[in-house]
Amino acid sequence: MVTTPGVEPVLQGSPYRADCPTRRILDRIGDRWTVLIVGALWDGSARFSELRRRVEGVSQKMLTQTLRGLERDGLVRRTVYPEVPVRVEYALTEAGRTLRGPLRALEEWSITHLGDVSAAQEAYDRASDSADRDH
Asked: Is the peptide bond before 15 cis (omega within 30 degrees of 0)?
């Protein structure tokens, strides 16, 4: 934190320091469900049930927790429409939309390198299994 007399303190991030608040932000945006939920909201708002269909494998509890965290962090906006039944939609905020590029790059990297990573995992597992049998 940088302080100047008579001026509000300014947070400066250094994620390599254990006490830095940027670690919490990295925990949020590096989370698997965050990456997928933000990706599912790239094209616009969605209801909870739509997100659940788009992000296969996410439990109701995990989707709820992740959406709440994203809302708290100012990355997702939750809008409640006073209808019967009540309609709730989730959308990326301006800050959430800035994640599109970095998260899209991660998504594309994972698709591009899937074969290489899978081959490396298989080679590692074979070598590990062989070493375990030798002991």
From this structure: no
